[in-house]
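Support request, please re-run this one:
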Amino acid sequence: MPIVSIEPATPDRWDDLERMFGPTGAYGHCWCAFFRRRAKDFTASTSCPPPERGRGNRETLRRLTLDGRVPGLIAYDGAEPCGWVAVARREDFIRLSRSRALRPVDPDEPGVWSVVCFWLPPRRRKHGLGTRLLDAAVEYARAEGGSVLEGYPVDTAGGRAPSAEVYTGSVRMFQKAGFSCAPHPVSERPVARLRLKEG
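Re-run finished. Output below.
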């Protein structure tokens, strides 16, 4: 697959991101806002009539992008956007701190970044692009001064699952990228961690 580059979602790339996510906002009008908004603020795809579905979620991602906060990375095949990974400082994902299943064991640990979501258009799946996006997320978090990168993958036991069920990535993918995976002490959901620098 001739991917030319994987680039930060800077303000000048908002139109690319919006075009790639399309009218349904990637997964069910989520617009990659699930981990960025409190449960009461998140706009579920079935909770609003069609014209309103996901509008608040889209505005959250749009505002972050246009404010220059870089909510993730976009893969390009030439000039065509073809993949997405959400990566940022862990504290940017407020849903994590409120989640029983994924609440940080040490919320005050400095320098922790999180990768929480992957999205690929259907025809781009099953070609290793998710792995390339994860590798790029590692390098981006390291370059931005992160000490640790966390992920919250799904254990598919080496098999395949529908993309909407593994939007956080698979355990196998994270392990192949050098992450260690251990069960969360409360929920036992896998948490993947990679130290980005010594100390």
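The two ends are 37 Å apart (CA to CA). The chain is about 25% helix and 20% strand.
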